[in-house]
Design a protein that fits this description.
The chain has 447 residues and is α+β, with helices and mostly antiparallel strands. It is 16% helix and 27% strand. It has a 7-stranded mixed beta sheet with strand order 14-15-16-17-19-18-20, with helices on one face. A 6-stranded mixed beta sheet has the order 11-10-9-21-22-23, with no helix packed on it. Strands 3, 4, 5, 7 and 8 form a 5-stranded antiparallel beta sheet that branches. Helix 4 runs parallel beside helix 6.
């Protein structure tokens, strides 16, 4: 499909906008973008879907929305089926619907069916997801982490990145996307310089076979970063063409299962608690002079983070952030806590996290895999790396710094596995794009 590889053959941005159409009331609904089950706790989950007028995107990536309503039927193994009320697909939110499930049982694999209907027909799609163990329950937990999913760099662009079947083979309890889910400003087919074109990026990504199959059976948590919000290294108040920062926030929230706040924490049994932080909505401009008033996370989020992390009695605390805290990063970057531009807050964050027992950082954003240890505090950070080999880069393959315990400039993903017992352990494994383990770091609870 040369259309993807040769931008000179693509329509103009204006032509793209004219090709996009609104929902058609008379059309039968289809679940062309599948289902995402997200924000899962021990007793709740959010089921996301979008109603479409066609079964799949055409060569111009059109996937118009359809009017209608959805409900979810779900049950535990051997248990009675429950069902939600019918929920309208919201035409003001791109014909998406988010249905909250409550009263779930901990550490249970639920089966579900999402039903859609309107006056012209029906559709349904089923899957499974795991709920978290309760906070007092020792339990094995395995999950996967990824970043950097540029559409044009997928190995088989009609299917999506190879990491999806590789991650599914591990049978993870959940999945974390640390941001750059789509690229509004660097995928040239087309640049997302309007809300309509921004949504097109989501439609074509999440109607691909590998993503649909994966998300039907693995619960997810999504964190946004710059490229899937507005543009590279962005901050509040900026625009990208006709797309505003606030519109980018709303579109991300409508296209993923979303909680009330963009920063949140989830407990996965006695031994694991994860924190997912928000790095764009509350930040100071990158070019503001550094000092006590300059921030990435903002005062409210920082207070919440420090209070909740100190209060946790989980064996392992894991901070998941869209951008690095330890690094090292390139000298020409000014966007994250490992850069000089945010040195004041970065030092405070590293000092705080290193003072907590068995606390680790997992980050996205960087297009290379690493395990780094801060030379001042001893804080450990794991970079999952970009989703494909073609999308990797930005760091010299032989540029191994003193902080690096491991460095690999290639694509893949990170898996994390907690094993309970008298001395619980947490294992961080970096994988290549086909799932082969390229590095393992095992951390004991007594270490």
């Amino acid at each position: 499909m040369s259309l993807f590889r040769n931008p000179l053959k693509l329509p103009s941005v204006l032509a793209w906008a004219q090709l996009l159409v609104v929902g058609v009331a008379a059309a039968q609904p289809y679940l062309a973008e599948g289902v995402k089950v997200g924000e899962v706790s021990s007793d709740t989950a959010i089921v996301w879907t979008r109603l479409c007028t066609v079964e799949s995107v055409n060569e111009r990536f059109q996937l118009p929305g359809a009017e209608g309503e959805v409900r979810v039927r779900y049950r535990p193994p051997g248990g009675d089926e429950r069902q939600t009320a019918w929920t309208p697909a919201d035409p003001n939110r791109d014909f998406t619907a988010q249905v909250r499930l409550e009263g779930l049982s901990p550490q249970t694999r639920y089966a579900y069916v999402v039903e859609a209907r309107n006056g012209s027909g029906t559709a349904e799609l089923g899957g499974e997801f795991d709920t978290a163990p309760s906070a007092d329950q020792p339990a094995p937990v395995r999950f996967v982490v990824t970043t950097g999913h540029k559409h044009q760099t997928a190995e088989e662009i009609e299917l999506g990145p190879r990491i999806y079947p590789a991650m599914a083979w591990l049978q993870p309890h959940f999945f974390i996307h640390t941001g750059d889910v789509v690229y509004y400003d660097l995928d040239t087919d087309p640049l997302a310089e309007s809300p309509q074109l921004a949504r097109l990026h989501w439609h074509r990504m999440y109607s691909l076979e590998r993503r649909v199959a994966f998300h039907r059976r693995v619960a997810s948590y999504f964190i946004k970063d710059d490229h899937d919000l507005l543009k590279n290294d962005c901050w509040p108040g900026q625009t990208y063409g006709d797309l505003t920062f606030n519109q980018g926030v709303r579109i991300f929230d409508e296209q993923t299962p979303s909680s009330d706040k963009p920063y949140r924490t989830f407990r996965w049994g006695k031994d694991l608690q994860i924190w997912l932080v928000e790095g764009r909505e509350f930040r100071s401009p990158n070019d503001q002079p550094d000092g006590p008033g300059k921030t990435i996370w903002g005062d409210e989020q920082m207070r919440w983070l420090k209070h909740s992390m100190r209060a946790s009695d989980a064996t392992f605390r894991l901070l998941v952030t869209p951008t690095p805290v330890v690094g090292p990063d390139r000298e020409n970057k000014f966007d994250n806590h490992s850069n000089d531009a945010f040195a004041y807050e970065g030092a405070d964050v590293r000092e705080f996290l290193s003072g907590l027992e068995r606390c680790y950082v997992v980050c996205g954003d960087r297009h290379w895999q690493y395990v780094s240890v801060d030379d001042q505090t001893g804080l450990r950070e794991y970079s999952c790396g970009s989703s494909t080999d073609e999308h990797s880069g930005g760091w010299g393959k032989d540029d191994k710094r003193p902080q690096h315990e491991f460095l690999r400039v290639a694509g893949g993903f990170l898996s994390v596995e907690v094993t309970p017992g008298d001395e619980p352990t947490i294992a961080f494994r970096l994988h290549d794009v086909d799932g082969r383990v390229v590095h393992t770091d095992l951390q004991p609870s007594g270490g």
